[in-house]
Write a structure and sequence with these properties.
Immunoglobulin-like; 5-stranded antiparallel sheet; 3-stranded antiparallel sheet; 1 helix
Length: 99
């Protein structure tokens, strides 16, 4: 099996993790992290009437750093105190996925 096919199969069997952020005034919200190369494309979050934005992502077990981009501003996850300093002197949120 080709490497690309193996990676796709591994993602398909990984558990779906739901990320949420409250952003009632936001026009658009994206989820970015080391799991997607910090690229917003394809990771726009769905905004619900209650102001909560949601995005499910399939992640294999491991440690991941992430942020939300809310109308162009980079936000840490206000509901997650697990953080680390990034190369820009700011903080990233951290999530640990266990098997």
């Amino acid at each position: 099996m080709a490497t690309k096919e193996k990676a796709k199969k591994a993602r398909a069997t990984a558990p779906a993790i739901e990320f949420t952020v409250m952003a009632p005034e936001a026009r658009e919200v994206f989820l970015v992290g080391d799991f997607n190369g910090w690229q917003a494309e394809g990771f726009q979050m769905r905004k619900f009437k209650d102001g909560i934005c949601r995005k499910k992502v399939r992640l294999k077990p491991g440690r991941y750093e992430y942020l939300f981009i809310v109308d162009g501003d980079w936000w840490t996850d206000p509901r997650n105190d697990a953080r680390c300093t990034n190369p820009f002197g700011l903080e990233n949120s951290i999530i640990q996925i266990n098997s």
